[in-house]
Amino acid sequence: MTLEQRLTRCPRAFDPDDGAMARARAPWAGGAMADLIAGAGGCSPFLKSLIERETGWLEGAVAGPEAALAALHAGLHEVPPDRIGTELRRAKGRVALLIALADLGGAWSLDEVTGHLTDFADLACELALRAALGAEIRRGKLPGMTEDDLATGAGMVVFAMGKMGARELNYSSDIDLICLFDETRFERDDFHEARASLVRATRRMSALLNDRTAEGYVFRTDLRLRPDPGVTPVCMAMAAAETYYESLGRTWERAAWIKARPAAGDAQAGARFIATLRPFVWRKHLDFAAIEDAHNMRLAIREHKGLGGAFCLEGHNIKLGRGGIREIEFFTQTRQLIAGGRDPDLRVRGTVEGLSLLAQKGWVPEAAAEGLTQNYRHHREVEHRVQMLRDAQTHLLPASKAEFDRLAAFMGCDTAGLRAAITERVDAVHDLIEGFFRQDAPGSAATEEGPEAEFDEAVIARWHGYAALRSERAQQIFKRLRPEILGRLARAANPGDALLAFDGFLRGLPAGVQVFALFEANPHLIDLLVDIVATAPALAQYLSRNASVFDAVIAGDFFADWPGRAALETELAARLAHFADYERALDEARRWHREWHFRVGVHHLRGLVGAPEAAAHYADLAAATITALWPRVGTQFAARHGPPPGRGAAVLGMGSLGAGRLHARSDLDLIVIYDGDGAEGSDGPKPLSLRPYYARLTQALITALSAPMAEGRLYEVDMRLRPSGNQGPVATSWPAFQGYQTGEAWTWEHLAMTRARVIAGEAGLGGDIEAFRTALIAEKGARDPVLRAVAEMRARVAEAKPPESRWDAKLGPGRLFDLELVGQAGNLLAGHDARDVVSGLRGAVASGWLDAAGGAALEAAYALCWRLQMVSRLLGDGALEPDRIGAAGAAFVLRETGEESMDLLERRLGDICAAAAEVIDAGLGAAGEGTGNGAR
Asked: What is the pTM of this model?
């Protein structure tokens, strides 16, 4: 399609005589095409000169603009190195003319315009770099390199930064480049000679593009975005650059590398370097400290450029000034820096694309993103028109009425309408962006003397000595936060206790900037923190060591309904798949688990779920963690010792995990069963016989779950419920397990099997284990040995583990241990394949062991004790003593149990457990005096 067929708008000739002269130089043009040429030439002296110079080429180019640019690019590839500077300059004029006409006539969108400008810049850099490197190679100055290495830049990479990197070049843009080289391409002894040669090549490349000659220039080139440009060479080794960014890199440099793209040279080395910088640019936690850094950059630019005064349309800087292009770019990049470490989808280069994704992900309101996008596009069009007038790298609006009239004619509108549109859009951008960056304290209305007067001054006075407040920046942010924090602590049920708990949180923080910035940007998190420190000081201490879990709260779905085990497994598996390194994958599992574990606790603490639901959620989380980790552990192990021999292995959850009920501090009882299926050992680089293979694989799983790493540990693991306990092998073969359970196991081990559940592993083997478990339970339910075993175990535990206090929900007559033991016995007596305690208590009634009233009494005791255990484990390690948990903790306990006071609850707990103990004593009868010969 020709250019004329696509025209949708046309500038008016500000100077009719100049327009007529431009039209006359293109006698081949007629109709709308002639009007476009007259309008362009009548407004822009620069375009008029190009029309006069390139009319012959333009006649053919407008017949197919994209094809014309492609032919121009192809022709440049054939130019010899000694002519490349001249031919690039001639081509730049033609590109500038065709792109301007397609833009002015509405034939190309803004994205197409900036894309074609960037394509030419990429080509110019590539050809200039080849010419410069070729000269060094032909002179023998680049050690080890031949002309065959020019295709990969001889190890050198030119990174396009800023607008060029994002494919957003403006019409008369300069180009920001960073030049690095891969030092591994050279011998150690050749390093200094190679660097000197590449520095010369960089300077020659820059001169080919930047220097003005009789033919003009190609692109103004800026090499100052490299690390510490005042003292570093224009081309640096990648290792040196990486060291700089890791140790000294600043927030503005992180933002700059969001848009970075290898534009010329060794593209593969460039991609590797960008991947290396990923942890520097994209922090693994939400990075709200970037907000203040970006705000300070904005203020510094305004001050440096003298743009901080009152708004005036004449001479306003549409790029750097109030409500300008840079404001929108800062807004977008800052939001990307905040969340891009957690969400790779946000790691895009383009401003418009970034705004769209931020809106999709909930980081920016849809209306705000749409408004900023429209204003950004309009600002960019104005910028292009200003630059097209005289090919000047300017962003200043006209300073006189006549020049404003010229700009309005160039844009095809009236002057008053243009002025009103620009003013309205600048104001809209300014209002939105300024609100985002405003650094007023969340609690600026609070007074210093209000809440602080109610608190212990000695506690507050010691805060300045804590590690979290060591840096000046942390102190500045916390000073703004302190009135709000103290005000909310003052509204807690017991402000003194809340202050002490907050003090514990603050004391445990290793650093404060990121956390305080997070609170400042999200004041609702202060409410959550105060809830936690006032109610559950132990959880607050956990937060101080793991403050990154707050990231999950503002990720969008923290308070959504529980997704279920399957969704958790899928999510963790996807997270692990991003990490080829095994230890990094294990750390990622710990980060992921920590956030979900915190979420369950907060939902329980805030009453979004009750104790039964929270218990199921903790169990889902544990099962999903094991299920997602098990294949990763297996793959890592198989790389050294070969794939699992035979059918493989299955992981059984025992105890509370098997029953699907865990609390906030549960460890995991596991058994691993494998089936060699006739195999003698593995086949790998370091093969192992069957038993050592699965024993070491099991140990690898235990390590993956329980080893303390940089991100902590997942769970403590207990394997003592395996056959023969600690005396038996850590992994049990399938035949041995069957033989042991049918002929050697103690009755208490059959009781334990009532709660066994296959969590992960080979599906066929898992199905066989479950079928065996069901048959075993149906077979081993003879009443006398079961009741003797229950009585004996009950007596042993009572002797070895007395209750901590009258509030101990787990230990003591008629409490959790007793009730769970009776539940296991009930399931075994009834031959039920159910695993939960309530089903077991009902099985005890169904089997005739207990009567209905006794079963109901045990169910009531179990419901109360389990709720108390869940609350107790969330609040801390110690006993659930009213004096220890404080007023807020007591309110949580009472809400969970439905009681009116702690005194009434204590009385109810004692009565209900005493009644349950009487039922159990009566049910066991004389079996309680057994000698233990029924244990097998």
From this structure: 0.69
